[in-house]
Amino acid sequence: MAKQYETVIGLEVHVELAAKTKIFCSCSTAFGGVPNTHTCPVCTGMPGSLPVLNKQVVEYAMAVGLATNCSIHQYSKFDRKNYFYPDNPQNYQISQLYLPICYEGGVEIETAAGKKTIGIHEIHMEEDAGKLIHDEWEDCTLVDYNRSGVPLIEIVSEPDMRSAEEVIAYLDKLGLIIRYLGASDCKLQEGSMRADVNLSVREAGTEKLGTRTEMKNLNSFKAITHAIEGERIRQIELLEEGKAVIQETRRWDDNKEYSYAMRSKEDAQDYRYFPDPDLVPIIISDEWIQQIRDRQPELRTEKLVRYRKEFDIPEYDAQIITESKKLADLFEEATAICKKPKKVSNWIMGETLRLLKERGMEPEEIKVSAGNLAKLIELTEAGTINGSVAKTVFEIMFQENMDPEQYAEEKGLKTVHDEGALRTTIEAVLAENPQSAADYKGGKEKALGFLVGQTMKAMKGKANPGAVNQMLKELLQ
Amino acid sequence: MANIISDETIEYVGILAKLELSEEEKQQAKKDMGSILDYIDKLNELDTAGAEPMSHVFPVNNVFREDVVVNGDDRENMLKNAPEQKDGAYKVPKTVEN
């Protein structure tokens, strides 16, 4: 019988923090600037320049650490990691090796197999590197240092994951927590969240870890899943052939869907870490930790528990709404005004999600305010506008946010509650469609729908469909 | 000299530092590094039991900046430091992988 193997996976997750400035200088972190327009002597590694730590970065790192159940090293400092590469103008990256800011935490994930805690070994602060662009014309490399010095945290997990499914669940959970904290937007595709996968295999039932490889350049859940599967098979095949797995860094090629070894022996990695003498230690008081703790928003897990208690909405709706803090805030604020959680939830689950998908937008880009959404619901409930008009109005509010009542008034979209006018219109519709009237009387229920449609059209959509229905039935008796 | 630096060590340090040393320079570097280590060994003569490891020479901590953008676009000046430039970027030998 073939041997059974277990896959052991640990992740190193880099997250770009949402700070406005770089970690050690006052240059902007804005994405997509013209190359090298966000640089200064510090982030281009000029001799004699001095780094000064961004306080916001420390606070974001602490916030993420606390939200992932980590302890905080109250005495923390920076070290230099030495390596030569043009993306790194100082020839060293400022990072934290010996006393990282957060340590020993973990998050709970849920997969088809049930709940499980993934340990977090540590979280440290560091700086990002510049961007290298290959120049096709001259066969040289162009360097853009706008990203050099952008603040990152690296979240190092314990080797607690056993499958791609668990890896995805863990990344999802981290992303959700960090987005709620506002510490980063955590987008894999755009590189604000990057995951390196450390993977080894061992015979099922054995304790000793196998030799691991590290895979880089995984920028989608699909790439992560495929890379894990490919690497697992590659390592098992090596072991089955009696060969050894070599500890190495491998780069995933998304187009070719395979990974290859990145570095050769000539540039052996020896980072020669040592304390950065330009940066003084960080001492974190109990009061400071408490301040950060007090500022933490309600996180998704707690929110879900509260929704179950407070709002009568389906569990599935609660799950989807709380996946985005923006949607959750919109839901809670609109509900607080109109006191109709189910209606608010329906607008979010229906039209809002549909428009987001259709327009390829993120929830953060929604313009409609909670107040105007609540107002729209009240107008619909009161019969001031009908359901289909409400949808039309919402589509505009979604991106422009205006007062729905004023808009309906200006555009003449309010439902006409004039019974006399409705009666006259219906009589005219019946006179124009004698066949349909006869069909309905003859037992064809469907004919009524057609007559309602004709009446709504004649009323330019401003009638109350319920009232139309009722009056049609009356007049057809 | 108590500390003897091997040829392999000099070779390795040379690779890490991206230096190509002549035979003469290698011999000189071996001698220099050996005597530096001898000098450092003197510290081992001190009794440091009970002394806290020092992580910084200054008795200063928590030097922070507020998160406010102060620096503007100074590309033109910054690029004056580049050995070569092209299209507003630093031009270096081909290093992109693949």
Which structural traits does this protein have?
heterodimer, A: about 475 residues, alpha+beta, Arc Repressor Mutant, subunit A, 3 domains, nine-stranded mixed beta sheet, B: about 100 residues, Histone, subunit A, two-stranded antiparallel ribbon, flat
Question: Could you describe the 3D structure shown?
Answer:
The complex is a heterodimer of chains A (477) and B (98). Chain A contains 15 helices and 17 strands. Chain A is of the alpha+beta class and 477 residues long. In chain A, helix 6 (315-321) crosses helix 8 (341-359). The relative contact order of chain A is 0.09. Chain B has a domain at 7-44: Histone, subunit A (Orthogonal Bundle). Chain B has three helices and three strands, in the order ααβαββ. The longest helix of chain B is centred in the first third of the chain and has 19 residues, at 23-41. Chain B is flat, with a radius of gyration of 23 Å. At the A-B interface, strand 2, helix 1, strand 9, strand 10 and strand 17 of A face strand 1, helix 3 and strand 3 of B.
